[in-house]
Design brief:
The chain is of the alpha+beta class. It has two domains: 41 residues, Winged helix-like DNA-binding domain superfamily/Winged helix DNA-binding domain (Arc Repressor Mutant, subunit A), CATH 1.10.10.10; 74 residues, Alpha-Beta Plaits (2-Layer Sandwich). It contains five helices and four strands. Strand 2 and strand 3 form a beta hairpin. The chain is elongated.
């Protein structure tokens, strides 16, 4: 895979920090500095700069969705009858706050949006779809349920 060159403001040490933190976001600054052969203070300064400049959006733990009782993973494509209306904006506002939606993308192609949705079971997913159907302007909803997860990775290649 060809990776475009990152922002020229990032040097090799910055990229190494980002790569290590993607693997272990809970890594302490002293441990990070040790891994990079830097002293703690310059490493801390780099880390704070990366946070302040928005390269690091936050820190989180990656949870096993199945152990959390979320056995259904669905890819949902939906279309609006008229994307020029205010209805898609209303939809986007609703989806931003919906906890079952892991991600939502406005896309090109046959559909207008693609969502990644979690549900505890098929009944729970069916309730989610009913909520979607209640949103004015949606003309079609197509679901694809994941049968098997081959690869999961939330890391950006660096």
């Amino acid at each position: 895979m060809k990776i475009n060159k990152p922002d020229p403001a990032l040097d090799a040490a910055d990229l190494a920090i980002l790569k290590l933190l993607q693997k272990d976001g809970a890594m302490s600054t002293p441990k990070l500095a040790e891994q990079l052969s830097l002293s703690v203070t310059p490493c801390w300064r780099r880390l704070k700069r990366l946070e302040e400049e928005g390269y690091i959006l936050g820190y989180q733990a990656n949870l096993d969705r199945r152990k959390m009782g979320l056995d259904v993973l669905a890819f949902v494509s939906l279309s609006f009858g008229n994307v020029g209306d205010k209805q898609p904006n209303h939809f986007e506002a609703l989806i931003r706050d919906h906890e079952q939606v892991l991600s939502c993308h406005k896309i090109t192609g046959e559909a207008d949006y693609l969502l990644v949705v979690l549900a505890s079971d098929l009944d729970d997913y069916s309730n989610f779809v009913e909520q979607l159907r209640a949103i004015p302007g949606i003309s079609s909803i197509h679901s694809n349920l994941a049968l098997k997860e081959i690869k999961f990775n939330s890391r950006i290649p660096l």
